[in-house]
Every structure is written in structure tokens, then in C-alpha cells.
Write a structure and sequence with these properties.
The protein has 309 residues and is an alpha/beta fold.
């Protein structure tokens, strides 16, 4: 088991700089969308966590989680379109350890904390928006991975459906390219050592940085999160995507871009269909990993699915 983990991580590490994600795909879309102000909710540990709300009269609330290294801003186009069409009231949280208001950037207190934070956000939504009759948990990239983790955890029953946009299913998933699009650089030795210590109950080193992200300098503004601790890296991805998705009985939509640089779009159908036979799995032609969340076809696909729930 540990040898397999090392092999997958080494393959990921040795080719990490082979290429990069197309960040320019988001630049013009972000500039054209006004952002709602950050609001906060209180998590169970008393921490105030930030989110943006795109309101609508819909009885469906969608929690849409951003990917690794960034925050909720890049999801504005998708969130705005879904809310403006009356499809869903959309909430885009800045995951703990991320965003301009982050207290401890790149770290959390324990591996399951992000799942607890999502459960607390759901409670907040239901308390503040009594018209909501269903909550859909979704995310893009690592945010999709967190949604999968949530589905397989103790709070999974809180979601009425799951939306997975180019989801990261784990470093050893058949859907992940060896170099993850040049985006992530894992510290293999640290990850292996800390994993072994965790296996025998030693968690003292879980706050050590083990993962870095290759965000080009021209796209940095000081609010990005360029390094993750072991516990944040672990908590922001599925513990076991097969177990998690194999237990899901509610509707699921999986959308990928045919030109995804980090993932193998054509592998999602054969990998996920046996696990989630009822899932809707579709590919958007011409869309890269980041273009997926701003493409007209991608947005239309999500809108139509949500309207059909």
C-alpha cells in the first residue's frame, strides 16, 4: 500500500512543471462580474468563516466550493448565472485556510474540519433562508473532491444532491493526470513519513507544509494560498472516492471539460459509472480545467440539471 502511494506521488512530483493550467481563461470573466460582499457564519469552534451569497427566490440552495490554492471569487460567473436564472440561491465559501480574510493560511486544526465547516454552513443557510427546501453540495476541482469527501463522511446525509465539476478524486485516481497540469508539487518524503506516523496514531507533524502550488506570479494578489499542511491537503480531498461515491443515493452530476489539463475527462464515465449508476456524467467539448466554470455549455448543463431536481 505505502509503495503504491509513493509511486503515485513520485510520478506526480517528477513531472509537476511539465505544463500549467490556463488561468487566462478566468481573467476576463472575473473582471466582468461584480462580486457580492463577503459575509460570515460561525463554525462550531467559534471561528468566523467567509462566504459570498448570490441570492434568488429558488428553493434550492447550492454550496459551491472553490479549488485548491485560491478562493471563491473565480466562481462568480457560474454562481451569478445560476442565481439570476432563478435556478438556485448560491453560496460560495472561502474554505478555511484560504481567502483574503484567512486567519491561518494553508492550515486547519484537524483533517475532518472542512467537513464540519460545510455542515455548519448548511445549518446557517437553513437558519437564515427558511424558504430553502434542499441543499446541493458541489465544488470544482479540489472543491469537488471535498464534496465527495463530505458525501462519504458523517454529514453526507445533509445534502440533497451533489454537483462535481472536474472533481479531484485523489492522487491515485485513474482520472488524474500524472502531472496534475503542472499545478501541484507534493513533498513526497514528508507526505510518506507523516502518513506512516498517522497510521500509528501520531499526528504531531500534521501541520507541516507538504504541498505547494504553481500559481503564475502575474495571477497573484496576496490572497492566494500557495502551500498546504498535511492535514489541509488530506481534508481537502476524498479519503476514498470509491467508498464515498458508492454510498450516495441522491442525484449526482459530474461535469468535465474535454480539454482538461489536470484530469482525464474520458476516464470519469468508466471509473464512476459502476460506483454511481444513477449519476449524470457529461463532458463539455473545448473546455479546459478552469474554462469549465465559465463556459456557456458548462453553465447550461448545471442549470438544467438543478432545474430538474
Amino acid at each position: 500500500m505505502m509503495i503504491a502511494v509513493m509511486g503515485a506521488l513520485l510520478a506526480m512530483s517528477t513531472s509537476a512543471n511539465a505544463n500549467s493550467l490556463d488561468f487566462e481563461a478566468l481573467a476576463s470573466a472575473q473582471a466582468s462580474r461584480p462580486l457580492p460582499p463577503l459575509q460570515t457564519y460561525e463554525a462550531r469552534d467559534g471561528t468566523s468563516l467567509a462566504y459570498r451569497h448570490y441570492p434568488s427566490d429558488a428553493r434550492t440552495a447550492l454550496i459551491l466550493v472553490h479549488g485548491s490554492g485560491t478562493d471563491s471569487r473565480y466562481l462568480a460567473t457560474l454562481a451569478h448565472e445560476l442565481a439570476a436564472s432563478g435556478t438556485a440561491s448560491v453560496y460560495t465559501p472561502d474554505v478555511r485556510g484560504h481567502g483574503p480574510s484567512s486567519v491561518r493560511r494553508g492550515d486547519i486544526d484537524y483533517i475532518e474540519q472542512l467537513e464540519d465547516d460545510l455542515a455548519d454552513l448548511i445549518a446557517h443557510i437553513k437558519d437564515t433562508n427558511t424558504d430553502v427546501s434542499r441543499v446541493v453540495v458541489g465544488g470544482h476541482s479540489s472543491g469537488g473532491g471535498l464534496a465527495v469527501r463530505f458525501a462519504g463522511g458523517q454529514h453526507g446525509h445533509l445534502a440533497s444532491a451533489y454537483l462535481l465539476l472536474a472533481p479531484y478524486l485523489g492522487h491515485d485516481a485513474p482520472t488524474v493526470r500524472d502531472n496534475s497540469g503542472g499545478w501541484a508539487e507534493p513533498s513526497v518524503a514528508r507526505i510518506v513519513a507523516i502518513s506512516m506516523l498517522n497510521a500509528i496514531g501520531i499526528t504531531h507533524f500534521n501541520g507541516t507544509d507538504v504541498l505547494r502550488f504553481n500559481l503564475p506570479p502575474e495571477y497573484r494578489d496576496g490572497s492566494e494560498t500557495l502551500a498546504y499542511s498535511y492535514r489541509l491537503m488530506s481534508g481537502f480531498s476524498p479519503a476514498d472516492f470509491r467508498q464515498a461515491l458508492g454510498s450516495v443515493q441522491v442525484p449526482v452530476l459530474v461535469v468535465t471539460g474535454a480539454e482538461d489539463e489536470a484530469l482525464y475527462a474520458d476516464q470519469f464515465e468508466p471509473v464512476l459509472r459502476p460506483l454511481v449508476p444513477h449519476a449524470d456524467i457529461t463532458t463539455v467539448e473545448g473546455a479546459s480545467h478552469l474554462e469549465l466554470v465559465v463556459s456557456e455549455e458548462g453553465i447550461a448543463t448545471v442549470r438544467q440539471w438543478l432545474q430538474g431536481l
